[in-house]
Design brief:
Distance between the termini: 22 Å
Helix content: 40-55%
Order of helices and strands: HEE
Number of helices: 1
Structural class: alpha+beta
Shape: flat
Largest sheet: 2 strands, antiparallel
Strand content: 15-25%
């Protein structure tokens, strides 16, 4: 699920969100193919920073 960011300039965010939603099947397929070759880590977490007009990963932990 993609978060709905609150901003006065929603055009670019909505376009990015739409592209991400359209890419979900291809992304899931890529993960499934990779998992067939490599064992995924037991767990992973990603810290996100929401600036109101952009969302960015700031840290990944395994």
């Amino acid at each position: 699920m993609v978060p709905h960011l609150i901003t006065a300039l929603t055009g670019p965010i909505n376009e990015l969100e739409q592209r991400m939603l359209e890419s979900v099947p291809a992304i899931e397929r890529w993960f499934r193919l990779e998992w067939m070759e490599h064992t995924p880590p037991f767990y992973t977490s990603v810290d996100l920073r929401n600036a109101g007009f952009k969302l960015a990963p700031v840290d990944t932990n395994q």
